[in-house]
Amino acid sequence: MFSSSRCLKNVTSIADLHALARRKVPRNFIDYFEAGSYAEQTLAANRTALDDIHFRQRVLAGANDRELTTTLLGQPVAMPLALAPIGMMGMAFRDGEIEACRAAHAAGIPFTLSTMSICSIEDVAAAVTKPFWFQLYIMKDKGFIRALIQRAKAARCSALVLTVDLQVLGQRHRDIKNGLTVPPEARLSTITQIATKPEWALSVLGGKRKTFGNLAGHIAGADGIVSLSKWTAEQFDQALSWQDVEWVQSQWQGPLILKGIADVEDARIAAKSGASAIVVSNHGGRQLDGAPGAITQLPRIADAVRSDIEILFDSGIRSGQDVMRALALGAHGCLLGRAPLFGLCAAGGAGVTKALDIIRKELDVTMALTGVKRVADIDRRALAD
Predict the structure, then answer these.
(1) CA-CA distance, 138 to 103, in Å (whole number)?
(2) pLDDT tens digits, 207-231
(3) pLDDT at residue 78, as a whole number
(4) How far apart are CA 136 and CA 145, in angstroms?
(5) Whole-Å CA distances, 374 to 78, 302, 377, 379
(6) 321-372 confidence digits (pLDDT tens)
(7) How far apart are CA 298 and CA 327, in angstroms?
C-alpha cells in the first residue's frame, strides 16, 4: 500500500499532488483523469480564464474571525464545496469512491458518486454513515435508469445530480491512443505501465470491484472489459431533452441538480424546471472543444438566475483562490473534481483530505487578504477592476 504520510510530507499545493499522481498511477488512467476533448482548447481555457481574474487587496479591514461555513441545498457545510462526480475513482486507488466519500464527509462537505463509478451505490452506502449525492447519466434503457434512481433512494442519497452535457461523448484522443478499458486489457503497453506501478496494482487489486459497480449485472455490455468510448456511444441517449428532466424529477422527487449548464438561455430554462440547483460547467473541458472558459459564463448566468435557483460551479478549480473567484462571480459553492482526484491518486483518502485542507486554507487566507469575513459576504467587490 501507499505510505500516505511519507509521500504527503512535503506537499504544499494541488500541483504537488498532481505530480505525485503522475508518478503513482499508470499513464492510461492518469491520462483519462487529466484529458480534455480533441485539441484540449477548452481544458486550457478553463485555467487561463480563472488565472485572468485578479483580486482587490484590502488592508486594515478587520478580517479576523473568518467563517467558511455556509449551506448547499439548504444543508450546512463546513466550506462552500462538494466533491464532483468522477468516473472510475476506483482505478485511482483501492475502493476510491469509498475513500473519497469518507474524506469529504470528514471535511464536512458532500460527496457525489458517479454513475460510472467502480464501487456501486450500495458499496458506498454500506461503508459510510452519512448520505451522499448521486450523479445520473440518462441512458437509452429507461427501465435501468428508473431502477438506478430507486437504488439511489434506497441508499438514502440526499440529492440527484443529473449530467446534461454528455449525450454525445467528446472524443478524447489520449483514451483512444491508450486503448483505455476497464479493467485494463492485457496488452503489452498496458502491462508495461502497470509493471512500473506495483503499489498502484496492489492497491487496485485489493479493491471490492474491477469494473463499473453500478452497471455490472444490470445492463448489457457492462461486464468484463468495457471500452469507454464505444460503450458510451452505444448506451447514452442522444435524444436527451428537457422532457427527460421532468421525467427524472417525477421518478426522484427530491433535490435535483442539473450539471453542465454553460449558457444563459439554458440557465433560465433550468431555473423554471423545478430543479434545486444548477452547476455552471463545461465538463472540465472534456466535451465541447473550443468553448470559452467556464468561469467567463458564470457572471452572466448568475445575473440572470441567481435569485431563482442555487448556482454551483466547476471546471478548472485548482485552488482556494479559484473557489473565491467563483464565489465572487455569483456561485453559491463549487464542485471539486481533478484537485481531490489527484490527492486520491497520490495517497488514497489521506490525499483527498490533504487536497481539501490545502484548498480550505487558501480560501481562508484569500478571504483575509481581501477583507472578507464570511462566505456569504463574498461578491464582486473582492475582485480588481
Answers:
(1) 28
(2) 988 888 998 777 666 655 555 556 6
(3) 98
(4) 8
(5) 12, 19, 5, 11
(6) 999 999 999 999 999 999 999 999 999 999 999 999 999 999 999 999 999 9
(7) 10
Cell 480588481, residue? 384
Residue the block writes with cell 489527484: 342
Report whether 293 contacts 48 (CB < 8 A): yes
Query: Closest Cα to residue 322, out of 14, 107, 11?
Result: 14
Quote the mean pLDDT of the chain: 92
Q: According to the 3-state scheme, what is the secondary structure of the chain?
A: CCCHHHHCCCCCCHHHHHHHHHHHCCHHHHHHHHCCCCCCHHHHHHHHHHHCCCECCCCCCCCCCCECCEEECCEEECCCEEECCCCCHHHCCCCHHHHHHHHHHHHCCCEEECCCCCCCHHHHHHHCCCCCEEEECCECCHHHHHHHHHHHHHCCCCEEEEECCCCCCCCCHHHHHHCCEECCCCCHHHHHHHHCCHHHHHHHHCCCCCCCCCCCCCCCCCCCCEEHHHHHHHHECCCCCHHHHHHHHHHHCCCEEEEEECCHHHHHHHHCCCCCEEEECCHHHCCCCCCCCHHHHHHHHHHHHCCCCEEEECCCCCCHHHHHHHHHCCCCEEEECHHHHHHHHHHHHHHHHHHHHHHHHHHHHHHHHCCCCEHHHCCHHHECC
The cell for 374 is: 464570511
Higher pLDDT, 195 or 26: 26
Cell of 177: 491512443
The grid coordinates listed for 364 are 481562508
The alpha carbon of residue 294 and the mean position of all alpha carbons in its chain are separated, in whole angstroms, by: 14
CATH homologous superfamily, domain 4-378: Aldolase class I (3.20.20.70)
Active-site residue list: 283
Per-residue cell: 83: 466533491
**CA R_g for the chain:** 20
Sequence spans of domains, the chain:
4-378
Q: What is the mean pLDDT of residues 257-286?
A: 97
Answer for the pair 305, 280: CB distance below 8 angstroms, yes or no.
Answer: no
